[in-house]
Amino acid sequence: MDLRTVNVTRYIMPLREGGSLPALADADDGFKYVLKFRGTGHGTKALVSELLGGVVAHTLGFKVPEYVFINLDEAFGRTEGDEEIQDLLQGSRGLNLGLHFLSGALTFDPVMTKVDSKLASQVVWLDAFLTNVDRTARNTNMLYWNKELWLIDHGASLYFHHSWVNYEKYAVSPFPQIKDHVLLPYASELESVDKEFKAILTDEKIREMTNLLPNDWLNWGGEEESPEEIKNVYYNFLTERIHHSDLFVKAAQDARKALI
Q: Taking every annotated instance into account, which residue ranges of this chain make up the domain HipA-like kinase (predicted)?
C-alpha cells in the first residue's frame, strides 16, 4: 500500500467549507486536488485522521478519491491577498495531503437519494469504527459522482487523539454519537457487515495503514513519544476497536431502534 507524492504548481482557490479551509490546487502530475493543510488549527492530526479514515474506507471497498502526499513549496502564499489564507499557506510548507478533485460531483442529499440497507450499514459501521462524528444530515460528507456514492472528509475521525490520554478507554467505547448518523435509519444489516469487515481488517492490514503515516506528521509527541511510538498508539487503538466491534455495533443497533 503506497501513496504517490506530487507537488503543488498552482493554488486555485480556497474551498470555504467547514473550519479547515481546504483549497483547490493543481499539481505537477496534471491533476487537480483538494488540498488539506497541515497548518490548520488541529495541525497534522487532522491529516492523520483524513488519511487513516480514507485508507480504511478504500480497503473496505468504498469509493474514495485517490489520496496523495502533496508538497507545498515555501514560495506559495506570498502573493495571496487574504491574510488568513496567506498565514495558512505559509504555515503549511512541506508535506500535506491531497484528494483527487471529483469535478462535477453532487453533494449527497438523503431526502432525494435513497441508499440500500447494505450500503447504509457499511457506512455506519465504518464511521462507528473510526469514531467519525461528521456524517450527519447537516453535513453528509458524501458525494455522487459517475452515478456512484463517494465518501469524503474523514478529518473528524479518531477524535481520541486530541486529548491523547486513555486511548484504551476510547478504543472500546460504544460511540453514542452514531445516533446522529445520516444513514442510521437504513442500516439494518450491521451484524452481517460486522463479520464481513472484521475479516478484511486484519491486524496486519491495520499495521500497513499506520505505517503510511509520515514521521514528519508525528513530531507533536515531543521528547515523550517518538513517531514510531505514536504509530503504535494508532495501531493499538484500531486493532482494539476491531476486536471489540460488538460494542459499537450494538450501540448503533440500539440507536437505530430508538429512531424507527
A: 12-231
